[in-house]
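Sanity check

After download, print the first record. It should look like this:
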Amino acid sequence: SDVYKRQINQQFADVKKSLGSLSYEDWMSIPEIGDYRVKKAKRSEKYVPVPDSIIETARKQGEMTTAIDPNSGISSIANNKVSLNELGEARGQVLSLKLDKLSDGVTGKTTVDKPGYLTAISTSLQLTKEADIADFKKARLLLKSMINSDPKHAPGWIAAARLEELDGKMQEARNIIAQGLEHCSDSEDIWLEAARLETHEKSKAILAKAITQIPNSVKIWLKAAQKEEDKTMKIKILRRALDYIPNSLRIWKELIELEGPNEAKVLLYRAVECLPQELEVWLALAKLENYDNARVVLNKARHALPTESSIWIHAAKLEESHGNDSMVETIIKRGLKVLVKNGVTLKRDDWLQEAEIAERSGSLVTCKAIVNSTLDIGIEEDEKERIWLQDVETSEEKECLLTARTILEALIENFPTRKNIWLRALDFEKKHGTPQKVEELLRNAVTKCPHQETFWLLLAKYKWQTQNQINEARAILKEAFEMLPNNENIFLQAAKLERQIQEFDRAKKILQMAREKCGTPKCWMQSIQIERLTNNLEEAWNICVQSLKMHPKFDKLWMIGGQIKTQLQSYEEAKQIFEEGLRENSESVDLWICAVELEMQLSNAPRARALCEKAKSKIRSNPKLWLESVYIEQRENNPKGA
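Expected structure tokens:
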């Protein structure tokens, strides 16, 4: 390239010299060449897809064989291009790199979370009989590295022993755990693992040695007692354990369960001295003692544990079990005051749960006392009704009926004039209570709400239909008349009662009184109907005429009047009554249908059809009228018209 450059210089040397003689005008007259940059043409790159055969060959060359195919035998190794020795060295280097990453570069100490790492190893080593030998080797290397990095770490030794146990090498596992005991003699877990790996007799010796090394280990003492088959030896070991660990609740519980009632009581007295903050021990002692001593025990427990509500609840149950029901609620209320004084936050939901527990255990008086004392804790006055009704639903779903009933009683006491609460309580008693409970509730309702006709009617109906006590029902209705002298529903209920028992004369007198005092359309209608029922059509018609003058807008009276005339076969008068009624009640569908039915009864289909069309024009889109039109055509054998 240098030669080429020199040749170019030589070729243009004379031209360069001549440029020095150019004038300024000649120089400026040289034309501009525009974009003087040298442009190189870009080559278009071409992409050719790689054949599948080349990709497949590369994939096969990159594969590593980690297991021997049992069907291929030695030939598969002979034909494999990868050297197994080289493969082993490579895997060793990978393992070394992984372990180096887990160590501190300065001190060389491991920085990995050992318990978590061992847990991960234990999880990953779910090996089967057909497991890969290489995986066992890898696990051994990992665990060996873990042990070497920190020989005082017991979980490493335990994991290594369990790996050998998994591989079926029990003696090797015992040897490893024995080495671990030399380094971690203060670890209860490794002693327990050593005892597990040994035979029954040898495990006893190991546990005995473990006790000498770690006399304050609860697990080792309990395991040593568990290994003994003789009950006396178990008790002896556990009593010896309490000499070293008198504040272990687990050992006390195991020992007390093995002893008889008398010995257990003595042990519990000793236990409450060693464990004064354990509620369970105090309550167990109170259960074993007689009434007087139990009271003393619970009083001591109350002073030792001033913030425990369970002590007060058990004290209340104790009084209830000995017939002192009057003391129960006093104890609960006093307990609440003491708990608040000692800074305990009272939660009504927790107390209601305690009430349900008391109910299930049969302490019914305690249950009621808890509900009555804690029901309004933390609730605003305007929220009581809603929340308490929800509590009733919840307790009823849990089948804690006494709790639910007590809450309902509190609702009635706080809201005695709320009709919905009385009805909810009545529904509850009908489902879960006795007839006596239902009657008692209804009598309370009419006493607290004497101007609510519903409760009078329900009470009379209950005595009449459920208990078949007619005279009692009459007496209730009579009392209702006095409280509600002009109440239509009470008159009608009394008349219905007499009509049901075939006392028509009494029913007529009641209805006559109702017409005079109430004078409502229903009272007149029932008077007409009872006359029709006794086949006294003339009297029924007379009453009907009077009623129509007073209540012309009550369509049922016109319908009954037309029906009476039809029964008397006065068809023209019946038609006239219907016509007059329709003038007063043109929007009454039933009255139109009665008029149509009368025409069909008289075989006057055209007239019936016309009436029906007239009704549809006045009352549009009414399905009853359209259905009546269909019936007319069907009775006239006109399916096409229908």
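If your output differs, re-run the checksum step. Summary of this record's structure: The radius of gyration is 51 Å.
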